[in-house]
Amino acid sequence: MGRVILGLIFCLFTLTGCAANVASRHYYGMGIHSVNDAKEFKIVSGSFRDGVQYYKNDRTMNPDISAWAEIQDGWFELIVVSITNNSKTPIATNYFTDDFELIDKDGRLFKVEKDSMTIYPQVNYINPGDTVKFPIVRPFEYDRFTKETAMLVCTLGSLTDRVKIVLKPLPEELESQPQGSGVK
Predict the structure, then answer these.
(1) Which of 60, 77, 85, 122 is the one with CA 20 to 30 A from 6?
(2) Could you say which DSSP state residue 171 is in?
(3) What 3-state class would DSSP assign to 37?
């Protein structure tokens, strides 16, 4: 019995040690009127000191709604998307109507499942000034998504009042920097 418990503890430490070495990819994005306008949002550079530098079209994008996501490569299935609402109006959110999709570089769309309703945010709105984290599950059939993902699309709200957010991968030079660098 003692050897079994020791074996389980060894496995736990081995797995958690491996978890620290799992590669991850970070994404940044903002509100957008239509996914068709996503080509007008480009992350052009970044550094720890200066944060993310991007190009956007003011007519089709809303930088008052921003988002960060971390997608881990490996056996982890969870993607965490943090959405910040700096606009003047609340953003509706609902487990049953919110949608998350990954779009790869070939334009293929992969529907992303929301995690269990019990850990999904229990809020009806992201109020102005608030940030809400959404746990979602990466698609099983999309095994190499960290290198192949062109964008992550979040659609929040009721069926009649939808807010779209497009997130794109950060440049490679930002990947090695600590999180929390500013956004320009």
Answers:
(1) 77
(2) P
(3) helix
Q: Say yes or no to pLDDT of 39 above 60.
A: yes
Count CA within 13 A, CB hemisphere, residue 149.
32
The mean per-residue pLDDT over the stretch 65-91 comes to 84
At 47, the amino acid letter reads S
CB atoms within 10 A of CB 168: 19
Q: Compute the radius of gyration of the chain from its Cα atoms.
A: 18
pLDDT at 1 over 80: no
Of 177 and 10, the structure prediction assigns the larger pLDDT to: 177
Nearest partner of 23 among 146, 184, 162, judged by Cα: 146
In 3D, which of 141, 136, 140 has the Cα closest to residue 152? 136
Name the more confident of 14 and 148: 148
Domain layout of the chain by residue ranges? 23-175
